[in-house]
Amino acid sequence: MKPILCNYYLTYRCNSRCQFCEIWQNPEFTQIPDANFDDVIANLSHLKKIGVRFIDFTGGEPLLYAKLPEVLSDAKKMGFYTSITTNCILYPKKAASLRGLVHFLHFSLDAMQPEIHNKLRGIPSFHQVMESIALAKALKERPDILFTVTNQNYLQIGELWKFCKSNQLMLIVNPAFSYGNIDKMPDSLLAYLEQFQNKPFIYINRALHAFRKKGGNKIDNPRCKAVSSTITISPDNKLILPCFHQKIDMILIYPDLLTVMNSSKYQDYKKSEGRFSFCAGCSINCYFDPSFMHQLDKYFLLSILSKAKYVFDKHIFSKYYSILGQELKK
Length: 330
What we know:
330 residues, alpha/beta, TIM Barrel, 8-stranded parallel sheet, two-stranded antiparallel sheet
């Protein structure tokens, strides 16, 4: 099967200091410049030829990338589905230039109490998120709220869901993967989150939860398709292999992406995906979500079920919910 997703890191710069993020904490990233615009456009052209459908323009904080609107505009013209996740600090200033260019616009919000959200994000940003939600709605945008779940904030899901329901926004529940000094998330915590999985305006990836409960990736029978399903590109125009979080190789994209992907080195990584020692127990969502689509099994079916609910809640149920609300006010 062809890759379906590209994780495109436009910048490693960030104006947050999130407890659960490795990028700002790693000195190796501070010296890397933002992506060259011409390189990005050339890579988009080749990603289209390869068959990639979805591009997550990420960082760092992607809104720090100066030519983000131009990149999104070109990606839209090429027919890609695009996503952006932002901490919302810059969104009020950038909203007009981004309007209508992002298919999946995600605003990070980790608690309805400002002090909890701000502590997890390392800076005071709660009020910018609230301002951004109001502004996006005024612009007829439909942002999703991305809830990064940790052992410290999982009890916030109820209040966040109530807030999203009242604003007819989707709450995307994203359990943090183990990193650094963050404790592994127990199954009991996942079970607590799952109490909400059938409620409207909430997306919980049932495949990921089931996979984590089974211990994650098994290197003798890997479910990971990180190389086959996903292309990861760094700001300095390198193909990251086998994945962003375990960078064994950083191959300069030269003369072009297609040439690199046809190389024997890339093909060797494709054969070894999920089999490295560090792959044992892995369940990082940004790689396993597309991986679940590359093999017909229970995880594929659970993933499809979760995504179907997302589409129904956001694009169908929300319309009737709005009509019902208007009728009740009469």
